[in-house]
Design brief:
Oligomer: homodimer
Strand order of the largest sheet of chain A: 2-1-3-4-5-11
Largest interface: A-B, 52 and 53 residues
Number of domains of chain A: 3
CATH architecture of the largest domain in chain A: 3-Layer(aba) Sandwich
Radius of gyration of chain A: 26 Å
Strand content of chain A: 15-25%
CATH class of the largest domain in chain A: Alpha Beta
Shape of chain A: elongated
CATH topology of the largest domain in chain A: Rossmann fold
Distance between the termini of chain A: 72 Å
Number of strands of chain A: 12
Order of helices and strands of chain A: HHHHEHEHEHEEHEHEHEHEEHEE
Structural class of chain A: alpha/beta
Chain lengths: 344, 344
DNA sequence: CGCCCTGCCGCAAACGTTTTCGTAAAAAAA
DNA sequence: TTTTTTTACGAAAACGTTTGCGGCAGGGCG
């Protein structure tokens, strides 16, 4: 059905040359006379010859494609990150193959397995919320598959990592709430198996301690699927609001959690920030038109994607095994808006 | 560097069989005795044999991957659509390769060229705002590359198309504004070369005419890059607001345009809906927490992506050339919120 | 004049499959 | 028993490349 593309063989036949000569000519080998090269090049251009990348992949053992595993692409942070990944990959002539784990451990395993058997040259991964063991990735890594983690990383695999400065981001967000005079600051965060959860929790705790407050576990709610399931978030929020000492501010530690929480608060008719103030991690470009406009910790998602991709391609194209690994920590930006401002 | 995977050859050697026997056994051919099949299967499973997809692609002439071209993935509508595309593709064992045109004609050409030379089995495309000629796609289509258009389609290529009912969506949005009593209804829309622009414009005009009003071109502003460049939107909005008979309502005809316009109106301190009402196409999941909450025409993005993918895979796997093409038109949903409600 | 060197090119193997065809042995039919 | 059919497998070509090696000229050298 598909129109047969022109191959090296066709060129060889047309020019009365051997296949190998044509191949070498196209690659500019010194074994071939200038004259012949010219002729071959000319013919190739004229007939719009494109080398078959599949054949090349088979021969070279590299596919010039990289696999991505994220929990969900329909998320501001990840779609921005993928935007960055795609642009760098394209520029270096790599294809980007996207998969989604939907926060499921099973699907993450299946996707990593599938991508590696599909012979991608490398992997860029942000772990799923359900993932507690990374044996599936360790196995692939040991087999020599280059991988770079971003956002949700693991300590169990020695390779490049790209993360936002979650600790500092959370610290600043919490400190901001404290400076505004809030004292009972709760946190709604993702699964406690995630690196980002830990880091954001630590930053939050440190800020409280620096202000002479003791973190209280009653005020910390883990949402196992990071906001993908609204009901889980509602549950966490409701529990917080029913506490004797109801929090006067909430820090939501991920993108989906932030928007969902704000939405729920509005449905519950709870005034923000009057009754409860809110600060959240989010990369929504619309945070300034929320009601109230949402004070946000914004991650440099695009840059994170770009960096991760550059590091991965370095790994892939390294002549000798790489043993020094970077952990890139990019600063977040705290955008102060109405949702966190003390009104009284 | 990469650990060599086990191949059919290895199995053959280990079991004292020929390569062809193993291949047939793995595919369950009737030519092979049950006994041998069992042995091969067992060995394969035990050693975690995975067929090399690149070799298979080369042999079969199909890559089991589909290419996507959208203007930008960092956009609610498209990320939701890609979510749908990915899920269906995954289920049918196709890979999804993503590219972004960034609304550039040049990049769309380069991407389509690149994807086809990368031998994807098919293409799912939403045209870029700059695209006026589709010769580059016609060429590929004539060569036999299956393609499905979605969202922004063209009449010049006979193939499946999946779109939202833009006409009806725009009609309903405009009618809603009319019912609320607004009379000077402006539209800010995308490049006038896009199908969606035309359809949404027609629905808008029809609604006006049905209400006995004459569409006025002063009230219609085209934004060439569909909101990717905020300054263009600002320009359009400013011009509208400076008109003698300033519009009392605006209908924004795309996702980015809607959020950007609302954001600009807030920055300009123009009260919505008191001074200007607003209805927009948007798939933002946060439209209900905007200030004011935004009356939206919501497209079934996920379903559109799924449908487009199913149709494409049908085309790819069709035994005989397909000559009957579908144009799937999926209904939008008008979510009425505060931004369009008459207050006086 | 014989030698080697260099320039230019082709042969053939290889990457990992799939598939067509051939063929031996075993089973069935004569 | 011989002939035919069936069963089960292997040899080899093919997909489109890349690459090591060998060969054949012609030219420079001794």
């Amino acid at each position: 059905m598909k129109f047969e593309a022109i191959t090296i063989k066709d060129i060889a036949r047309a020019l009365n040359l051997s296949v190998s000569t044509v191949s070498k000519a196209l690659r500019g080998s010194h074994e071939i006379s200038e004259e012949t090269k010219k002729a071959v090049m000319a013919y190739a251009r004229e007939h719009n010859y494109k080398p078959n990348p599949i054949a090349q992949s088979l021969k070279r053992g590299r596919s010039k494609s990289i696999g991505i595993i994220v929990c969900n692409i329909d998320n501001n942070f990840f779609s921005q990150a993928i935007n960055g990944i795609e642009s760098v990959a394209r520029q270096k002539d790599y294809n980007v193959i996207i998969t989604q784990s939907q926060e499921s451990y099973e699907r993450e395993m299946a996707n990593s397995e599938h991508l590696s058997s599909r012979s991608v040259d490398g992997l860029i991964i942000s772990l799923s919320a359900e993932t507690k063991k990374v044996d599936h990735l360790i196995k692939l890594h040991q087999k020599g598959l280059p991988m770079v983690f971003f956002d949700r990383v693991t300590d169990e695999i020695a390779t490049h990592k790209v993360i936002a400065n979650n600790y500092k981001g959370a610290y600043e967000a919490t400190r901001h709430l404290l400076q505004q005079g809030f004292r009972r600051i709760a946190q709604i965060t993702s699964s406690n198996s995630l690196s980002i959860t830990f880091e954001r929790l630590e930053g939050y705790k440190k800020a409280l301690e620096d202000a002479g407050l003791k973190p209280d576990s009653k005020y910390i709610k883990f949402v196992q699927h990071g906001g993908m399931i609204p009901e889980e978030t509602r549950q966490a929020l409701t529990e917080l609001l029913q506490l004797k000492n109801r929090p006067d501010a909430i820090f939501t530690a991920s993108d989906r959690l932030s928007t969902t929480t704000l939405s729920l608060l509005r449905k519950m008719q709870i005034a923000v920030p009057q009754e409860v103030a809110l600060v959240g991690f989010t990369n929504s470009i619309s945070a300034d038109i929320f009601h109230p406009s949402l004070t946000s910790v914004v991650q440099p998602a695009l840059e994170m994607g770009q960096q991760a991709t550059e590091l991965l391609i370095q790994l892939i194209e390294a002549k000798r095994p790489v043993t020094e690994f970077k952990k890139c920590i990019l600063d977040t930006e705290l955008k102060i808006r109405d949702s966190s401002l003390r009104t009284t």
